[in-house]
């Protein structure tokens, strides 16, 4: 179909509609789409600008979302309220025409207000199209030209063809903006919750000024650096809490903190979990999956129970530590990452090395900065603070009305116990006691009669000896090593005879300068 445009130009309606629609709906970024449409329309109509409005008739409010002129397309966020006289003219939207030609818009009630909103106070000609989808008003598109009497009826007939494309573009743009706003809100909420969680974690380091004082000094030393850290300690001493503290005090605090329990992942899935896989890499790999190392990019990865890691995965971990890259299962190209590795174990890694169950080169890669976390029996000064911390924590979790009290002598009972399960066992003991004694002070009768803390064999020294404590401990360790012929860990080793963890004993030996290992005579 051809439109006779004025006395000279003939326009193919179908071609005009197709070309204009391609430009209006050509980009989800409405300012770009509007600019492309403007540049096409100005070949046929003497326009100087286009404005796209979103209007809420019920609330009597609106927003100018975007505009385009000879220079550019621009995204806007101009919110407005029409004055009462204008709404009398507009009414409920039904009495207002679907299109309006205002060749002296600055003298018209509606045109004057529309020009004022976008900052135009000179003579202006305006064409207005109401945009309606499924009988619902979504907004208005306005075409403007400087001066009076710039538009003809043929101009309005031409732009009327584009009502539906403009309505769809406006609706899509609004939905796109809403999605972006929701995304930003979720990102802000996530960041806030992560910060709150990190603050909570950092507050859980009870004993930082007492039993864990030396540990926290080491944490502050290594946290600002990218060096790997290896945490030693028995089960339940709080290795994850210390790993959190290192991350929170590091320059990577705003990055991800990814935790992995190496002993909880089946050996057949460990490569996929750590390094990810490509679609079709193995049976059941129906889609591409990112591994934990990739998710930890620009952050910290915490490998708990590193001693349980299968031998093949140890080799791949060694490459990550050396080159900071890895290949997902089934992938042809390596992925570069920037991560900080913190590992933890309650196993005797040196014994595992002797048994060929842990790679020696990986051990030395991780041993850049070892931190030994002492068991609870070696820092019983922290028990009162830990008990109060766990009481408050469980009181909030359980929703008790009254804060539990401690019976006189309860702390003394707790200090008399050796706590083989360390801080985790103490937490469980506090929770159990709060459940059992809901109406009475907490007595901790359950820790009475348990096996007392194992005591090492005493050593007799001459009365004339004036030895420092470290000298006494050093002499005792050397005596036990002589009995075990230098064996530290494993069955029949010095650590077993002394009732302590092999890592704890080695840490003490390093501190005291006592040599150990193959070839050291005792």
Summarize model confidence as the mean pLDDT. 83
Low-confidence runs of at least 5 consecutive residues: 449-458
Lateral arrangement of strands in the main beta sheet? 5-4-3-8-7-6
**Extended strand count:** 15
Largest sheet: 6 strands, antiparallel
Level-2 CATH architecture of the largest domain: 2-Layer Sandwich
Task: Quickly count the helices.
Answer: 19
Alpha-beta content class: alpha/beta
> What best-fitting shape do the alpha-carbon axes yield?
elongated
The oligomerization state is single chain
The total tally of domains equals 4
**Cα-atom Rg, whole angstroms?**
37 Å
What percentage of amino acids are in beta strands?
15-25%
CATH class of the largest domain: Alpha Beta
Distance between the termini: 106 Å
CATH-wise, what's the superfamily of the largest domain? GAF domain
Characterization of this structure:
Helix content is 41%, strand content 17%. By secondary structure, it is of the alpha/beta class. It folds into four domains: 2-177, GAF domain (Beta-Lactamase, 2-Layer Sandwich), CATH 3.30.450.40; 204-372, P-loop containing nucleotide triphosphate hydrolases (Rossmann fold), CATH 3.40.50; 377-447, Helicase, Ruva Protein, domain 3 (Orthogonal Bundle), CATH 1.10.8; 455-522. The strands form four sheets. Strands 5-4-3-8-7-6 form a six-stranded antiparallel sheet, sandwiched between helices. A five-stranded parallel sheet has the order 10-11-14-9-15, with helices on both faces.
């Amino acid at each position: 179909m051809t439109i006779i445009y004025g006395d000279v130009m003939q326009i193919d309606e179908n071609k005009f509609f197709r070309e204009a629609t391609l430009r209006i709906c050509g980009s989800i970024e409405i300012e770009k789409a509007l600019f492309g449409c403007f540049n096409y329309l100005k070949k046929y109509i003497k326009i100087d600008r286009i404005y796209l409005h979103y209007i809420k008739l019920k609330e009597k409010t609106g927003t100018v979302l975007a505009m385009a002129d000879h220079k550019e397309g621009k995204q806007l966020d101009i919110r407005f309220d029409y004055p009462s006289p204008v709404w009398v003219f507009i009414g409920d939207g039904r009495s207002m025409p679907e299109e309006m030609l205002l060749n002296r818009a600055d003298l018209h009630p509606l045109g004057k207000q529309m020009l004022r909103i976008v900052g135009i106070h000179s003579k202006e000609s305006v064409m207005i199209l109401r945009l309606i989808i499924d009988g619902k008003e979504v907004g208005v598109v306005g075409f403007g030209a400087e001066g009076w009497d710039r538009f003809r009826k043929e101009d309005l007939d031409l732009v009327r063809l584009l009502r539906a494309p403009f309505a769809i573009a406006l609706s899509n743009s609004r939905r796109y903006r809403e999605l972006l706003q929701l995304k930003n809100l979720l990102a802000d909420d996530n960041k806030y919750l992560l910060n709150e969680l990190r603050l909570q974690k950092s507050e859980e380091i009870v004993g930082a000024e007492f039993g864990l004082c030396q540990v926290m000094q080491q944490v502050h030393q290594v946290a600002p650096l990218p060096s790997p850290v290896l945490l030693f300690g028995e089960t339940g001493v709080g290795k994850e809490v210390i790993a959190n503290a290192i991350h929170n005090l590091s320059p990577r605090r705003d990055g991800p903190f990814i935790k992995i329990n190496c002993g909880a992942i089946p050996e057949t899935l460990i490569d996929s979990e750590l390094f990810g896989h490509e679609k079709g890499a193995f049976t059941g790999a129906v889609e591409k999956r990112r591994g934990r190392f990739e998710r930890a990019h620009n952050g910290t990865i915490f490998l708990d129970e590193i001693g349980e890691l299968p031998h093949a995965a140890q080799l791949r971990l060694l490459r990550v530590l050396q080159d900071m890259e890895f290949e997902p299962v089934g992938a042809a190209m390596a992925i570069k990452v920037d991560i900080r590795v913190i590992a933890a174990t309650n196993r005797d890694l040196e014994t595992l090395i002797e048994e060929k169950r842990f790679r020696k080169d990986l051990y030395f890669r991780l041993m850049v900065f070892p931190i030994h976390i002492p068991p609870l029996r070696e820092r019983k000064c922290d028990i009162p603070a830990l008990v109060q911390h766990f009481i408050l924590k469980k009181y909030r979790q359980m929703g008790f009305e009254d804060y539990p009290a401690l019976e006189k002598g309860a702390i003394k009972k707790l200090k008399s116990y050796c706590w083989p399960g360390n801080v985790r066992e103490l937490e469980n003991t506090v929770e159990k006691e709060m459940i059992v004694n809901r109406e009475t002070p907490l007595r901790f009768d359950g820790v009475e009669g348990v096996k007392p803390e194992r005591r090492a064999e005493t050593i007799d020294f001459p009365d004339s000896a004036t030895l420092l404590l470290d000298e006494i401990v050093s002499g005792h360790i050397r005596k036990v090593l002589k009995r075990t012929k230098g064996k530290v860990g494993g069955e029949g080793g010095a650590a077993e005879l002394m009732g302590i963890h092999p890592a704890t004993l080695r840490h003490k030996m390093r501190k005291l300068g006592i040599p150990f290992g193959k070839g050291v005579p005792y």
